[in-house]
Amino acid sequence: MIHNELHETAKALVAPGKGILAADESDTTIQKRFDTIHLESTEELRQAYREILFTTPGVEEFISGVILFDETIRQSASDGTPFPQLLAARGIMPGAKVDHGLQRLALAENETVTEGLDGLRDRLIEYRGLGARFAKWRATYSITDELPSDYCIWANAHALARYAALCQEAGLVPIVEPEVLQDGTHSIERSYHVTSRVLDAVYTELFDQRVDVFGTLLKPNMVLSGYDAADRAGIDEVADRTLECFYKHVPAGVPGIVFLSGGQSDEDATAHLNAMNASGPHPWELSFSYGRALQGHALRAWDGEWANAAAAQQAFRHRAKMNSAARTGTYTPAMEREGAVA
Ligand code: 13P
Fold it and tell me: Rounded distance, CA 325 to CA 110, Å?
């Protein structure tokens, strides 16, 4: 097999002990996050918050890459250093969220398709010029007794593969993110079934569209009981069912699976990843690309004030360290007390 830069980048993003920070909240999503601390989302505050995260001392030990929103990849730190250069200088790879978000899927009820393919080739070239080494595109699927439809599954798989092929042409590693949302009352069995169908379609389309899976990463949901289910599966069952699903449906050539946290508590997201790695080795690196589960404590500690920057950084570093431990199956809940911020 001929190794190329995409393979090396993908492997570096899942280097031992490291994972990805998803800091690519769109303007609408970051406003929702800021709402939780009663803060209006202004460009200045978004820049300040991201600067605090990106300059966290020592975090490069645990973080290999950061996914940035379009606004952020063009912003600079207070000293004038563009964010992508600031991250790269610390050995952290910058990446870009390149989809244009969810739209209602035509002739379907309560289903979405992700848009953003028009003009994508040129935008990828621009992001690469700004310093991005990888990209992200997120599709979502809701679970009910009837949904997702095959139509939704295949329309999104097709778009994910078109995005991934364009990324590889532009020299960017595509993070392929099919997120089966875990809201609702569904059983873990139903989550397993839907996630299986979704992954099957995604890898069929990636193959048909000539994508080299060695130069990709998968960013999936874990297989969970619905958040409102009466009887929710515990940590070991989640780890077992998630692994079983991926062993059946994700090619061994994929270098890494970087989970999203998807609304799990910080500790659950860490414990699930830890349990999966504890039963390794597996064909792929199992890592994290968390948004909320890395930032929740940090956001609350910051509370919109520069004076709280050090406390926010301590909170972020702590969560990054816990998830780094989960990469080797050596995390224990007792570790939460060391260096944690309330
Ligand atoms: P969460 O970990 O908060 O789900 O965010 C990850 C992400 O990038 C969603 O697209």
Answer: 38
Q: Compute the distance from residue 186 Cα to the ligand 1 centre, in Å.
A: 21
pLDDT tens-place string over residues 149-192: 999 999 999 999 999 999 999 999 999 999 999 999 999 999 99
pLDDT of 120 above 50: yes
Rg (CA), the chain: 19
Q: Which residues pair with 218 in a beta bridge?
A: 176, 257
Question: What type of residue is 170?
Answer: A
Residue of 36, 134, 289 with the most ligand 1 atoms within 8 Å of its CB, for mutation: 289
Counting beta carbons within 10 angstroms of the beta carbon of residue 228, is it exposed (0 to 12), middle (13 to 18) or buried (19 or more)?
exposed
The residue to mutate among 260, 266, 297, having the most atoms of ligand 1 within 8 angstroms of its beta carbon, is: 260
Active site residue 177: yes
Tell me, in angstroms, the distance from the centre of ligand 1 to residue 262's CA: 6
- Residues with C-beta less than 6 Å from any ligand 1 atom: 22, 138, 177, 260-262, 290-293
Count of other CB atoms within 10 angstroms of residue 63: 27
CA 87, CA 320: separation in Å to the nearest integer?
A: 16
Could you write out the three-class secondary structure of 57-103? Answer: CCHHHCEEEEEECHHHHCCECCCCCEHHHHHHHCCCEEEEECCCCEE
Instruction: State the pTM of this model.
Output: 0.98
CA atoms of 249 and 236, how far apart (whole Å): 20
User: 112: helix, coil or strand?
Assistant: strand
Residue 340, pLDDT score: 55
Active site residue 136: no
Distance 22 CA to ligand 1 centre (A): 6
pLDDT at 341 over 60: no
How far apart are the CA of 113 and the centre of ligand 1, in A?
A: 17
